What we know:
2 copies of one chain form a homodimer.
Chain A: E1 2-11, E2 18-28, E3 33-37, H1 44-51, E4 59-64, E5 67-71, E6 74-75, H2 79-86, E7 87-90, H3 102-112, H4 117-130, H5 146-158, E8 164-168, H6 176-193, E9 196-200, E10 212-217, E11 220-221, E12 225-226
Parallel strand pairs in A: 3-9, 3-10, 7-8, 8-9
Antiparallel strand pairs in A: 1-2, 1-4, 4-5, 5-6, 10-11, 10-12
One adenosine-5'-triphosphate (ATP) sits at the interface of chains A and B.
Amino acid sequence: AIETHQMTKVYGSGNTEVIAMHDATMNVERGEVVALLGPSGAGKSTFLTAIGLINPPTSGQIFIGGQLILDGPQSHTNLRTFRKQHIGFVFQKANLIPFLTAIENVQVALEINGNSPRAARKEALALMDYLGVADRANGLPNTLSGGQQQRVAVARALANKPSVILADEPTAALDGHRGRQVMELFAQVAHERGAGVVVVTHDHRALDVFDTIYEMEDGAMGPKKRQSDL
Amino acid sequence: AIETHQMTKVYGSGNTEVIAMHDATMNVERGEVVALLGPSGAGKSTFLTAIGLINPPTSGQIFIGGQLILDGPQSHTNLRTFRKQHIGFVFQKANLIPFLTAIENVQVALEINGNSPRAARKEALALMDYLGVADRANGLPNTLSGGQQQRVAVARALANKPSVILADEPTAALDGHRGRQVMELFAQVAHERGAGVVVVTHDHRALDVFDTIYEMEDGAMGPKKRQSDL
Ligand SMILES: Nc1ncnc2c1ncn2[C@@H]1O[C@H](COP(=O)(O)OP(=O)(O)OP(=O)(O)O)[C@@H](O)[C@H]1O
Ligand SMILES: Nc1ncnc2c1ncn2[C@@H]1O[C@H](COP(=O)(O)OP(=O)(O)OP(=O)(O)O)[C@@H](O)[C@H]1O
Ligand SMILES: [Mg+2]
Ligand SMILES: [Mg+2]
């Protein structure tokens, strides 16, 4: 589903140069749920936003669904359209639209992809109910707890049933029980719908849910480790 | 150091009423480091922002240093001045000033309390070095990773050596190693300087560092549990 080849990202230049990631290579099959671990500052968000087509690499290739999408900063398709149709992204900060209610935040993601308001609301409510945030549906984001906002962001990312799901520390603000529920949902979506899923996490407790684990350190991507080998 | 008595917080009214916490009572001694746990939405941030004097309760009393500070929404001192002098707060979202560099964010907290720019910069750098973020000192917050921003927020909260330290999930964006280092730093500040420290956390791994554990659920505060009894 997702393939990267020798991705490098350099910020700044000269004195302020930061090599956030170098030569990062990863292969995610359809139906595979991958955990990406590593210390703070290792380059995980940089990697994820690159394959999410939000933050193109300085060099290296990104293939999605077998199609070359980015070659360094050079795009081979309309990135905005491609993201809208194929990628669901959970940001490290929930990033909800502050002037829309929780349910509207999920609903608009569905409407943007052609669903009627009625169908969109029904689907949004079902997802939020599963994640335990339906009772805060009509609240503005700044009246929701940190973990409630995070769960609404998860609902929004999953709403359009995208074939690629990328989540940046989606359970950081959640307790153990809710956190595991979210990780299991990602695994279920991968295994039942064939989505390719990459989850950045610091949480070692729910790792048994993943098919594959990669670790980054100082911008370098380690080798693929299969759950079956651990 | 901190004493609360039957604190209640109600948001909204009628259909939109949310009882975020009710009758919450907690007693934190000088030199005591307390962990506050509980599921997402339990009322932890509501409790912490209340005793941080940022979000006064609907009813109930808050005593700091033996002095009555808030009785429901009624303040008995200038809250802004009191906070500046006595309380260090790490927010659930780092909340750094976006147009100041990382080190400036810590430095201004010191300067506001009367330190010279030179002394402030020296102290800021020492704290950031300890937390492993000195190499990003001159970066604007949006160029720092999630965990780097969080560590800068911790440095800012500790910079003035306050007698009350309140931290809302300060290690959520940190890996195990860095997270433990931050928790140990809070315990050290409590035990060596006599600060009263309350840390909201979902991270069960570093709990051995705390003297006392409280748990909230659905707005209710559970009983005090001493580490020695666990
Ligand atoms: N301004 C507000 N208006 C209405 N409801 C609110 C407001 N702020 C918080 N709440 C609600 O109060 C409850 C407690 O929120 P709080 O932020 O204290 O939870 P929390 O324990 O910190 O959760 P988390 O672990 O997810 O951060 C939640 O149901 C939340 O939606
Ligand atoms: N826009 C930017 N300009 C300069 N440096 C940057 C920028 N964005 C990120 N960095 C740096 O690149 C490195 C990797 O950042 P990244 O956000 O990918 O780390 P991370 O692994 O996600 O960390 P965390 O676990 O703390 O979220 C960090 O040292 C960070 O300071
Ligand atoms: Mg990150
Ligand atoms: Mg909270």
